[in-house]
Amino acid sequence: MSTTATKPAGDFRERLRELPPSAKLIAKVLETDEPLTQGELADESLLPDRTVRYALTRLEEQDLIVSRHSFRDARKQVYLLNN
């Protein structure tokens, strides 16, 4: 029974392991359980905007994050972990 509970977390980590360091850093920043915009992620991670965009794309391709429109500003997307 405990293996079922740990399998999704293990699967998440396994898929994350194959990604570049920038994507791993963005995933770590998103562990705060607070949805963040691309700009906020760039500020928190100290990565350039272009690198953050690339990391977000890779994380979305692996279905490790989800995005939705921000409630504060509907023009922006916010990102959070999909686990």
How would you summarize what this structure contains?
With 83 residues, the protein is an alpha+beta fold. The chain contains four helices and three strands. Helices cover 55% and strands 14% of the residues.
SSE diagram, text form:
Layout lengths: L1 H16 L3 H9 L6 E2 H8 L3 H13 L3 E5 L7 E5 L2
Antiparallel strand pairs: 1-3, 2-3
Helix pairs in contact: 2-4, 3-4
Instruction: Tell me the fraction of residues in β-strands, as a range.
Output: 5-15%
Q: Let me know the average pLDDT.
A: 90
Classification by helices and strands: alpha+beta
Report the top-level CATH class. Mainly Alpha
Uncertain residue ranges = 1-6
Under the CATH scheme, which architecture would be assigned? Answer: Orthogonal Bundle
* Distance N to C terminus: 18 Å
Shape: globular
CATH-defined fold name: Arc Repressor Mutant, subunit A
Strand order of the largest sheet: 1-3-2
Count of structural domains = 1
In helices, the fraction of residues equals 55-70%
Regarding quaternary structure, how should these chains be classified? single chain
Number of strands: 3
Task: Describe the protein.
With about 80 residues, the chain is α+β, with helices and mostly antiparallel strands. It has a single domain, classed as Winged helix-like DNA-binding domain superfamily/Winged helix DNA-binding domain (Arc Repressor Mutant, subunit A). Strands 1-3-2 form a 3-stranded antiparallel sheet. The N terminus is likely disordered.
